[in-house]
Each structure stands twice: as structure tokens, then as C-alpha cells.
Amino acid sequence: MSFRKAADLLRLAEIAGARHGGVSLDEIEETFGVDRRTAQRMTRALEDTFRGVRTRTDEARRKYWKLDAGEARMVFAQGLREAELTALEMSIRRAERDGAARDAEALARLRDRMLAAMPGPHARRVEADAEALLEAQGFASRPGPRVRVRPDLLGVIAEALKAPQRLTIAYAGARDAAPRARRVEPYGLLLGTRRYLVACEAGGDGRPRHFRLDRIASARLEPEVFARDPGFDLAAHAARAFGSYHDAREYGEVVWRFAPEAAAVAREFVFHPDQEMTEAADGSLTVRFHASGHLEMAWHLYQWGDAVEVLAPEALRGLVAGHRRGDFPALP
């Protein structure tokens, strides 16, 4: 067996041991990027290598492979790898950078517990390798512009989202002279140039509204819980905007055409999760999607100078007119 196949088999054993219901062929295909026959060979190798593999079939006749606890503990005893510790450290630093103090503390505790369970020499080697990877990637040296958000505010919102519980927020809208109290039912957070709390007003019409976190003066957790609308999908809701700002009046088809000299670069971008790209005979690239948020689109399009043209909507085309420079020395 090759090193790559052995590593994949160990990873499959980790997944089969960690997931309560086991792992299916579809999940193996998706995780390892293999076809059905290769996934089947991997499950046979799993059964041949580990005696504690059990299988079950669900109502849809999908088969799952589960590694029992005893053998799973042996697999997990190998501890953290440097790439995994690096990912943990990067997540901690992202949380600290974004003001999510509770998330940073929880991840740090997880990291420390896992390192403490490893033999000393192994733990020191993994820590040294992970530190080298972090320095090479330069994560700490890329702060980037962001709006400050108080960690205590994020902590209260996180607690409300778990239950879920209602919140009373002191919020200053664009037309408010001072913050006023609003009782809301939180559904999630949108992270972008600015951050928004997605919530419905308690006793209101049930439509989700957006509250800018930098305009929330305070937040108080209320004792009463509420039932979220089971039909609400945060990812689908977020996809209705280009960034974090939503405006139902702007929602519609967006069409951009990138010049041939910018097409190769633009092709590497995911401008929107539902985008469609088509290439023309002249080498230009057309991108289509449906969203709102013209101002955030204009901010992004400015970076491309005159290498991009807005074909639709007309309102966005007018917004960027006069700002398409041709003297930028590089593309985004």
C-alpha cells in the first residue's frame, strides 16, 4: 500500500470513528474526491484493517461504516498533526482579530487539551512545525481593514443564537438621534465589510431585518426562548446580496463583462455563490448572478478599473460610470 493510500485509510478511520452515524460512500467520494469504485475499495480496506468496523443501512438504503470506540481511540491517539495545529492556530487568530473572544478562548482550550494528551517530544515537534507554517503564511501580518466590534456584544449574541433566546438591543438606526430599545429574535450574523445581526422584531411581521453591529450600543439576553421559522435558510438569505447589505428594491440580475486581458484573473474569483460564467470568442468573460447591494458591488468593481463593464442593472452601470480608471498597474 502506498503512503498516500495509507494516509487516506487512516483519515477514513478517523471519520468513521468520529461520526456518530458512521460514514457513507457518498461522503467518502466527496471528502476524498474519488469515484464510487474507489470509495468501495476504501471501505473494503477499512474492514480488512480494523476488526471493529460495523455497518448499517438507513431507510433510503444508504450503507454506513462505523468504527467502534475501542479502535477509534487507537486511531485518535496519534494526536495532532502540524497542519491541523496550524489550522487551529489560524482559527484562534481569526477569532481574536474579529473580536470573537469566546470563540478564541474555546479554540485555545481545545488546542491545549489536545497538546497535553500527546507525548512531550511529539507535541514540541508539532508546535515548532506549526509555528513555521504560520510564519510562512504570514497570517499575523495581514490585519486588513475591519470595523471594530466589542467582544462582549458578540458573546451575548452568540448565547442568544444557541438557545435561541430573545435579545433586547439598544439600536441607533440611520434616522435615530439616539439608540432605542428593540426586542428581537436573532437568526444569525452576516460578515462582510460591515457586520449585521439578522433578526426578526418580536411581535412584528416575521420578516428578517438587519442590524449593524457597530450601531448596537448594548444587548441584553432575555429569559424567553422562541421558535425559529423552519423555512428560513441563512445561506440562501445571504446569497440575496453581493456583500452584507441587503435591499429588496435592488434585487435582480447582475451582469458584468470582463475584458480579455482580465478574464483569466476574473475566472478565479467567486463573486457570488450562484454565479454563471460564459466565455466569448474574443476572450472576454461574462459573469451573471442575482443579488442586491449595488454600493458594495461598486466598491469592488472600482478595483478592476476599465477592465470590467457593467451590462446590468442600469442603476449599477450609472453608479460606476466615471470611475472606471485605466491607470491601475495591476488587477485585484
TrEMBL record:
Pfam families per UniProt: WCX, WYL
Signal peptide range in chain numbering: none
InterPro entries (UniProt xref): CBASS_pafABC_assoc_protein, WCX_dom, WYL_dom
UniProt cross-references to PROSITE patterns, sorted A to Z: WYL
PANTHER family (alphabetical): PROTEIN PAFC, PTHR34580
Residue ranges of every copy of the WYL domain listed in the record: 153-220
Record-given protein name: WYL domain-containing protein
Domain WCX: 253-321
